[in-house]
Amino acid sequence: MTYSVRREELAQLQPEWVQLLEQQPEPVPFQHPAWQRVWLEVFQDGRDLLLLSVRDDETLVGIAPLIRNGDSLSFVGHYSICDYMDFIIAPDQCRDVFDAILTALKDEAWSQLDLRGIRDGSTTLTEFTQAVESNGMTVEQEEEAVAPRVELPGDWEEYVSGLAKKNRHELRRKLRNLQAEGNLQLQTYTSREDVEAHLPILLRFMVDSRQDKANFMSEQMGLFFHKATQALAEEDLIRLYELELDGKPVASVLCFDQGGQLYLYNSGYDPEYAKMSVGIASKALCLQAAIEDGKHCIDFLRGDEDYKYRLGAQDQQIYKLVIKR
Q1: Among the listed residues 105, 39, 34, 29, the one whose alpha carbon sits nearest the alpha carbon of residue 73
Q2: Beta strand pairing status for 261-269 and 297-299?
Q3: What is the DSSP letter of 314?
Q4: Strand partners, 261
Q5: pLDDT class for 1, splitting at 50, 70, 90?
Q6: According to the model, what pLDDT value does residue 84 have?
Q7: Which has the closest alpha carbon to 49: 79, 74, 21, 84?
Q8: Do the beta carbons of residue 279 and residue 314 sit within 8 Å?
Q9: CB 167 within 8 Å of CB 310
Q10: Which of 65, 112, 125, 139 registers the highest number of CB atoms within 10 A of its CB?
C-alpha cells in the first residue's frame, strides 16, 4: 500500500480532519482543528507550522500537527493549556501511517522530536516508537504527568455509593448543607452567545479563588480562553456550568464534551462562599449532570489535586517522548 504525505493548510484540511478525529477511540478537544487554529492564532509567534497529512489514495488516514522550535519539532500546542497532544491516525492503519510520517520527516531539518501530552494507551507509545527504532532513530520515554478520571455508572446514587466511605459521607454532608442555604441550581450554557456572556464570571472566579490561576491568567491567556471557547461552542463541544445559590453565581466549571465524555478543563468559585464548599460541590453536580446526560466518563485532565481523588478519580498516565536522529 502506498501513502502520500502532503504539507497542508489548516483551514483547507479542517472538514476531513474532523471526520478523522471522530474515528478515534477517544477523540479529545485539544486535537480538534478549531482548538488548534485558535492556539496558533494566539501563540504561534512566527514559528513554522509543519502540518502533514497522510493519504491512502485520496482518503485522509493521518495528521501530524507539528510546529518548529529552533531545531526541534513538537506537537501544536503547549502542555500548560493543551492537556493531551498526539498524532491523529486511522485506527486500523497506524504502523504504515507512522512509517509514512517518519519518511516525510527525514526531508525536514530537525534534530529532535519533543512530543508531550501523550496519553496512556496511545499507539504513539507503541507502534510509533517501534517505527522510530526501525528507522534508526533513538527514543526516550518518560512519565510526564497524571490525569485522573472517573468512569461513570448509569445512576447518581450508584456513583456516590461507590466512593470511599469517608469521601461519600463528606460529599453528601456538603451537598446537604449547601442545599439548606437556599435554592441551589446548576445552569448549563452551550451556545456561543451564552458561553461568551458567562465566561467572564468563570475567569473572575478563577483569578479570585486561587493565586496560581491569577498568575496564569495573563492578558494573552484571557484572549485565548475567549477565542477557544467561542470556537468550540460553534462545534457544540462546550459545557459551561454555573452553580447558582438563590440566583447568584457562586462557582463555575468549564467542560468540553466530546466522544461521550466530559473533560473538566478549569473552574473557579466566589471566595465569599468558600466555607460552603461551593468549589467541590459544583464539580460533584457536574458529575451528576454528566451521568444524567448518559456520559460514560469525566476526565479531570492534568494535575493531582486532592478533590479529584475525593470524587473517585483514578490516575491516567501522560507520557513524553524525545526522539533523536
Answers
A1: 105
A2: parallel
A3: B
A4: 258, 297
A5: low
A6: 98
A7: 74
A8: no
A9: yes
A10: 65
Residues 137-150: pLDDT tens digits? Answer: 999 999 999 999 99
Domains and CATH numbers, the chain: 3-146+319-324 (3.40.630.30), 149-299 (3.40.630.30)
What are the φ and ψ backbone dihedral angles of 245, each rounded to 5 degrees? Answer: -120, 115
> pLDDT tens-digit profile of 79-122?
999 999 999 999 989 999 999 999 999 999 999 999 999 999 99
Residue 154, judged by CB atoms within 10 A of its CB (0-12, 13-18, 19+), counts as exposed
Tell me the sheet residues that pair with 205: none
Max distance between CA atoms of the chain, in angstroms, equals 66
Distance, CA of 266 to CA of 282 (rounded, Å): 12
Q: How deeply is 305 buried, as exposed, middle or buried, from its count of CB atoms within 10 A (0-12, 13-18, 19+)? A: exposed
Question: Which residues lie below 8 Å from residue 236, measured CB to CB, with a gap of 6+?
Answer: 190, 257
Q: What are phi and psi of 9, to 5 degrees?
A: -100, 140
Residue 65, amino acid: P
Q: What radius of gyration do the chain's Cα atoms show?
A: 21
195: pLDDT strictly greater than 70:
yes
The model's pLDDT over 36-70, given as tens digits with 9 standing for 90+, comes to 999 999 999 999 999 999 999 999 999 999 999 99
Nearest-angstrom CA–CA distance, 236 and 239: 8
SS3 (DSSP) at 249? strand
Q: Can you list the positions of beta strands (E) in the chain?
A: 3-7, 49-56, 59-69, 72-75, 88-89, 112-119, 138-146, 149-151, 184-189, 238-245, 248-258, 261-269, 297-299, 317-324
State how far Cα 48 lies from the chain centre: 24
If you search the block for the grid coordinates 485532565, which residue do you land on? Answer: 301
Is it the case that residue 278 has pLDDT exceeding 80? Answer: yes
Terminal Cα-to-Cα distance of the chain (whole angstroms):
26
Contact 133, 93 (CB under 8 A): no
- The DSSP output letter for 157 is H
